[in-house]
Amino acid sequence: MSSTQQVEQLERALRHHGVGAVDVAFVLGSGLGAFAERIERARVIPYAEIDGMPTSAVKGHAGRLVVGELGGVRVLAQQGRVHLYEGWSVSEVTRAVRAIARLGCRRFVLTNAAGGIRHQWRPGLLMTIRDHINLQGRSPLTRAESGYARPYDEGLSQTLHAIARERGIALESGVYAGLLGPNYETPAEIRMLAKLGADAVGMSTVAEALAARASGARVAGISLITNQAAGITGEPLSHAEVMAAGREAAGRFSDLLQHAAARLAG
Predict the structure, then answer these.
(1) Are 122 and 249 in contact (CB under 8 A)?
(2) Which of 107, 111, 199, 228 is the most buried (most CB within 10 A)?
(3) Topology (CATH) of 3-265
(4) Is residue 200 flagged as an active site residue?
(5) What is the pTM of this model?
(6) What confidence tens digit (pLDDT) does each residue in 126-170 have?
């Protein structure tokens, strides 16, 4: 079965479960799944029940689809995503966003946990993704698809910053570097990324952003800075630290997305 046929299969499976067009789709990264609890009139569908839905084995990715409403608009949240470092292909990593776009969704908010490269940024800070550097060594696009030099929508980002100011939430903007993983970056690699202009680094998001944009959707990205990257503090890095930062920031992160949903859809 081709990757296009697999996307079509997943689209049919989502329709079978009653998932139709939504106004905004949220992809929730490591430790950020609690936002889905804010969704009203929610229906929860485990990935295991959805034919053709790739499921992550990484802690902090619940593997559930939550469909409902926020601020009067129809929303969908992916509680977890799959990663290239788990052995999934780039077409599998982007299958869900492509299928959701085929259902008619034209607004995506892609979120992730990331290491902070700026020395002055502390764990718990939120950052909209202004641009990315794809260092994963592969692209999800086919030769028949149109690529976009600017996958992240400036208007959606401005909406998020406006909501953040209204809610008193600190929100920065920066460049996200997507690496393959699964290992954390070395101090030398972090120094290289800083010279390239990256503000945060992680192991997801870039392929999904490219695929969603090529599918005709507008894309916003948000990184939660869960730790300072290797070499900045001298402390060892761990996934437990990522999860702890997610729990600490859950309220601010969820508050931002909850109050932004209606305006993002508009």
Answers:
(1) no
(2) 111
(3) Rossmann fold (3.40.50)
(4) no
(5) 0.93
(6) 999 999 999 999 999 988 886 677 899 999 999 999 999 999 999
